[in-house]
Amino acid sequence: MSSKISGEATKRTRLSPDERRDQLITLGTKMLGERAIEDISISEIAASAGISRGLLFHYFPTKQDFQLAIVQHANAELIERVTPDRNLGVFEMLRDSITRYIEYVSENRSSYAALLRGPTSVSPDLVPLVDQTRGAIIGIILTEVPVEVDEVDRPRLLLAMRGWIAFVEETTLTWLGAESITREQLIDLLVESLIALAFSLNPALAEALRG
What we know:
The radius of gyration is 20 Å and the shape is elongated. The protein has helices at 8-11, 17-32, 42-49, 53-59, 63-82, 90-107, 109-117, 119-122, 127-144, 154-178, 183-201, 203-210. The termini are far apart. The protein contains 12 helices and no strands. Mean pLDDT is 84; it is low at 1-12. The longest helix is centred in the last third of the chain and has 25 residues, at 154-178. With 211 residues, the chain is an all-alpha fold. Helix content is 74%, strand content 0%.
């Protein structure tokens, strides 16, 4: 599928600097859905936006700055998607959030793989952005669990949660490549793995997650 996006209407429209910047990031994020971050084409995006390649660098001083903006936008989209429906119970929220996560990565397979596999090879500046997303997902989950975690147990819990996130990412990447089980089975696996991990740390926490 071509990553060029029709820009005929855009070419006839004057945009404010903020609107143009947002447009370029949106085009870059869409292209990220089709190719790795290092393969984002400045020339194609500029052409789709109806501007010159040089003008794009008026909004983003370097290609690396543009890549950072694209990754920030993609990460923000993911966090927005995985935020659960707070009208649900705790267990239903957990399952809802993981379901949303799998839906998002299924719709954005290339960009998901690129974000996880690409940052270190492209730029060390991208690594903290992906890391912040992992921390935000952990925060979403812990915010909804009605169990106090004391200062002694908290470091263990956070470390375990980071390990679980790594498990989720690797398992999901493998599943995307083969889909050896159904989507529902994958969601069950990820939900139950978190509950099992929580039980090993604090049985009360596991009970809270089960609702």
